[in-house]
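the two lines:
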Amino acid sequence: MNLQNILHEIEQVDGEVYDRLKHVTRRHMFSSITKKALSVAAPAVMATALNKAYAQSGSSVTDVLNFALTLEYLEAEFYNRGLAAGGLIPAQYRDLFDQIRKHEDAHVALLRGALGSAAVAKPNFDFTAKGTFPTVFTNFQTFSAVAQAFEDTGVRAYKGQAANLMSNDAVLTIALQIHSVEARHAARVRMLNNAKGWIVGMEGFPGAVYAGEQAAREREVNVAGLTGQTEMKVSEAFDEPLTKEQVLAIATPFIA
Amino acid sequence: MLGPDGAARTGIGADVDVNLGSGDVGILNYAYALEQLEATFYERVVANPYSGMSAMERSILMDIRDHEVAHREFFKAALGSAAIPALAIDFPGVNFNSRDSILQTARTFEDLGVAAYNGAGQLLADMRNLNTAGKIVSVEARHAAIIRELLSPNSRAFAGDDVVDPATGLDKAMKPGEVAPTAQTFIKQGLIASNLPTM
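prediction for all of em together
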């Protein structure tokens, strides 16, 4: 049985196989995750990759930290490039972006230090997102809009992984300490875009960054009913998580 | 019985200590106490606007009030019969007519809330409670950043080095034992936090 058939069979019982393999690509075992690319990969490499992908299945602490590191690489390089682009960031906003850059650089260093040799390498980024944001480093409004998307995604990404870190108190706490810093960044950047510091319903761009944020019930509690507030207002009070798959779908266009 | 400042307690219910309890319920009651504190503060701020409050500031403070009220009512409902009672709260030393006093107090509460949730996460045993805490703490961090921005526009203060360690990029995380003394300053009943989990 050749590799293509094996993959096809796995796909019959596990429709998420290609999503699971995306995780492997972040470990740079493949440069592309197309079926064609997989079909020509050496079988031995494939076997190892599959074992890793399934064994870790997105929930181990190391895996969460590498997921976080990838997002921090993205943010850090984005702000470093933005600050280096002459004439992009108006003088009055350089301090705030330099402060954010400082934190993202520190997060990268912290996570790389924690992961040691298990740390993924930094991907090559395309901040135009394959041409969606061609003026990202020449137009401040575009830059600021992408910054907001990254920060709000970061908040939701860390939130979505907290439960996967419950087995390790120290790592969970550090993740929470990063999570709230991303939220501070998000709030400040949102103001630049004439938005409130908090997420209102599903408002925002790109839409995938804000999917599900309109939730107005927390657990089984009807908070709007209890407070007399609108559901839109209640949605502001609770930030919602994103799954790793949702985050990767948002981030992937920015990876060259 | 003496209050936290050593003065005799006065007022309804002021002579009754409040036991937060143990386990996840204890941590949720601890969060409920902090949310009561914040919600009461912003309710008073909005009801008694300081002189010179701009329309933007009023809008922001009303939003934050609504969020804190939503958090408070969520915890009360989620805790049900295990919830601590409504706390008797006052704000000694806070001048409700002073913009600086109000925004600086708000900054203290928001930064404290962020640090409290960050430190409490690891004390929760039930994944659902951790997830809920995560949904709230980032909103508190958003508040903190915006309040700090009002105090010091276009600076680094929204995530300043006084609250985010510049070497690690980490926000503060405080255990209940570190947070309680500050919170107690504003709460007439004595909070008993000794049964909360510590690790």
